[in-house]
Amino acid sequence: MGVIIGIVLVGFAAAWFVSQKPTASEPSESVLTPTLSQNPYLQEYSLPDNSGPNGLIVDKTGTVWVTSSKSDMLYSFDQKSGQLKNYEIQDGNSQYFNPGQNTTMVWTVVQDKDGIIWFSPAWNKITMAF
User: Fold this and answer.
1) Which residues contact 95 (CB under 8 A, 6 or more apart)?
2) For residue 90, what is the enclosing H or E element?
3) What letter does residue 21 receive in the DSSP assignment?
4) pLDDT digits (tens, 9 = 90+) for 74-110
5) What is the pLDDT of residue 1?
6) Closest residue by Cα to residue 111 from 57, 73, 71
């Protein structure tokens, strides 16, 4: 498997680093197979419909983490096995950001030195840890 190169989107959602973990349902799992492009340098995978991928990070173990701007989901993708896990973000605030549409609107995702994944929804000044 090659190296994943991503673009970091720098957003306007400033945050305080408060250790508040969102309530997450048990992850649902599926296995992704390469979809559109496949060559020695690139493998392309598709996330579930209407996911709206926004923030992306590859952690220390090579797991790809993607936040969804349309479905209140955090995805983790294991490049070796092709396994995709979906974690629903349930903090009770997202419905107030854009009435009638669930949206996390996460612009930036980072990993700290302890391996914890941090992200900050646009509607909230509290950074969430996973």
Assistant:
1) 102
2) strand 83-90
3) P
4) 888 898 888 888 887 765 554 444 444 555 566 678 8
5) 43
6) 57
Beta bridge partners of 76: 65, 85
Q: Tell me the one-letter amino acid at 123.
A: W
Run of H or E including 94 = helix 94-97
3-state secondary structure of 96: helix
Report the predicted TM-score, pTM, of the whole model to 2 decimal places: 0.61
Instruction: Sketch the domain layout of the chain as residue ranges.
Output: 16-129
d(CA 130, CA 124): 16
Contact 122, 97 (CB under 8 A): yes
Q: DSSP letter at 81?
A: T
Say which residue the tokens 């612009």 belong to: 107
Cross-strand bridge partners of residue 106? 121
Strands 126-129 and 117-121 come out as antiparallel
Q: Which residue has the tokens 């994944």?
A: 117
Kindly give, in sequence order, each residue whose CB lies less than 8 Å from that of residue 127, ignoring residues fewer than 6 positions away: 15, 16, 17, 18, 20, 118, 119, 120
Distance of CA 56 to the CA centre of its chain: 6
